[in-house]
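Appendix B, Record 12. Input sequence as logged:
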Amino acid sequence: MKVVSIQRASCVVLAGLLLSWPALYNGYPLLYPDSTDYLTSGAPVARAIFLHHFDGYYGTRSPIYSLGIFLAQWNLTPWPVVFLNGLLTAYVLWLLVRSLLPRHTLTNYLCLVVALSFLTGVGWFVGLVMPDILGPLLYLSFYLIVFFWETLARAERFALMLLACWAIASHATHLLIAIALCLMLVAVLVLQREPTHRWLRAAGSFATVIAAAVLVQFALNTYLNGKPSLNGERPPFLLARVIADGPGRWYLQQRCGNLHLAICERVHELPDNSDDFLWTAGGVWSRSSEAQRQQIVKEEMPIVLGVLRAYPQDELIISARHFWEQLSAFELAGFDATPWVMQTINEAVPGGETRYLRSRQAQGTLHEEFFTDVQSWTVTASLGVICMWLVFFRRGRSRQLIGLAAVIAFVVITNAAVTGILSNIEDRYQARVIWLVPLLAAMFVLTWLDNKRTSTLRLSLSQSEVEEVLDSSTIPQSASVTLEAPAIQIKKKP
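Logged structural output:
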């Protein structure tokens, strides 16, 4: 038993390394402009918590994610973050394969990991120092908790719930999608006519995880910043979105004469791009003082609600267009080197600039276009496999497999809606979940092969084996024995 456990653990570790290949190919962990903010903020958060030394600024991102990756890398090197991402992804995939395919688990698992690693973008997000990979792991963890609670060990349930809690607290979109997914999963259990205690248990587990994540995040932000807050020092993303869409600009231009708002001081400088509003050096947010920023954030929701009341149809049409564009935007883009990373890498990882400059990302030789094409072909083929499974393969449709299809379809659509409508349209947002589509197709194929293999084994009993069964039983000689899938059938002669 111990040998088997060591073999399985080694397999998961090997899978984690395999999933990390893009970072190894790059020669350094993949970095996004936000990555250095996460890396830099971890140490101040840790000093505030453990040493009670307050710095006054802890970044604009999730302090919980920053703290988590700091405990892994200690500002020495970001490589432990990559390997942590790989191990977490490999572990969740292992539980998924073991639960759905309890026979030949190791073989099926390794086939799945190899296919996903080289044909989809999952490895790129494993190698990226960002919380992006935690989103899909969160959604798969909720799926496992709902459909395989009884087969999971107590330690496995705790590990999945802990991972889900960290993932929810690591990014605002994860919280929104998690809440929507919980409601959908409870609805699926009710529609499948599951016993009341099963969906009540699922609802209780979800509520516990989400409440814990929200409370920890709220408490930590309050402790660090001295005032109650769920998102800390976040920029006004929604305000930037409605202004970039157009209705926000129209609303302010028409009403700033009568309204005394901080944003009205720059009403004639409002851009048509949310990135320009928030991040450009000469943008509204960058040029505002700390007092002006606090006032803009305070006025954000009244302005957004006013825009929705004044231009509901315009915002609905614009949001629908953004959703559709985001749904099909999943190229492996956003991995180019940026000046911001160059400027801040040494602050995040002392001495890291030299190693980063030697990477393919810094030199522009990652060849993302080729891997984007591979992923696009894989997603297209996977959609074809899923459609064929839905139309032609009615046998083998277990409740659990249908549940996985519902979860992945819901997540892919909801992720496009949340990110496309509330933020910018960016390939990275959808690419971080689109690999779940090939995962679903692969599980369909592996389940079909497993069922076919099992049927073949049942039909391969030789005549001598049947005679041994007859000799060792009390079946009367007047009975006839026939081999019919899925088992031996014994019929009494007339």
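The beta strands are 479-484, 487-492.
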